[in-house]
Amino acid sequence: MAKKTKGPDDAGKRNGDGKPESAGESRLAATPGETAEPSGSQLNVLGQYIKDLSFESPGAPDVLQSPPPNPQLQVTVNVTALGRAPEIFEVTLSLEVHAKSDTGVIYNVELLYGGLFRLRNIPQNMLQPVLFVDCATILFPYARRVLSDMTRDGGYPLYTQNLARGQLQTGPTN
User: Fold this and answer.
1) DSSP E strand stretches across the chain
2) Bridge partners of 88?
3) Pairwise CA distance, residues 5 & 7, whole Å
4) Alpha helices per DSSP H over 24-158
5) What are the C-alpha distances in Å from 53 to residues 96, 113, 147?
6) Side-by-side strand order, sheet with 104-120
7) Please, are residues 101 and 58 in contact by the beta-carbon 8 Å criterion?
């Protein structure tokens, strides 16, 4: 086995990009009395919460006993962002789900799901995409779970439960 020899670039501590740091160089420089912070962009989730939640099933319990014909589902998603303090933003997902059939409303669900984010060192031209895409992407799975739980708890079983019971047909039967 060959022994590795140190070359001139091998001396000193590496800083992650293959170049050695000099004795006085540091990736995080801080003046006395300040804490060192990374110079790269940061997105921190400070909190998530339900701002408003509404579930209506005006046809219950009748609609639960015999599913109405020709059900239709309409889902609307909107995102808003609001600055709360320097580097602090509130992003809110507005989700509306309306299920109806030829006989009327099956159920309506409306959810405002918010998150508080700290954004540091984000270039101004990237602020809007980060808020409306990245932050919304972080919030969406949690908001989806709230909607799923709400419709299930409202008496509407999940797709897989209906499939297991054989209530859903995937094609024509002979």
Assistant:
1) 42-56, 72-85, 88-101, 104-120
2) 85, 118
3) 6
4) 62-65, 124-129, 136-153
5) 10, 8, 9
6) 42-56, 104-120, 88-101, 72-85
7) no
b/e map of 155-169 (b: 16 or more CB within 10 Å)? ebeeeeeeeeeeeee
> What are 86's two structure tokens?
């320097």
Q: What is the spatial distance between Cα 55 and Cα 146, in angstroms, rounded to a whole number?
A: 11
Using CB atoms within 10 A of its CB, is residue 9 exposed (0-12), middle (13-18) or buried (19+)?
exposed
Tokens of 63: 């609609």
Among candidate residues 96, 91, 74, the one with its CA nearest the CA of residue 139: 91
Instruction: Report the length, in residues, of the chain.
Output: 174
First to last CA, the chain: 72
Helix (H, G, I), strand (E, B) or coil at 89: strand
Low-confidence ranges of the chain (pLDDT < 50): 1-36, 159-160, 163, 169-171, 173-174
Q: What is the pLDDT of residues 98-112, one digit of tens each?
A: 999 888 888 999 999
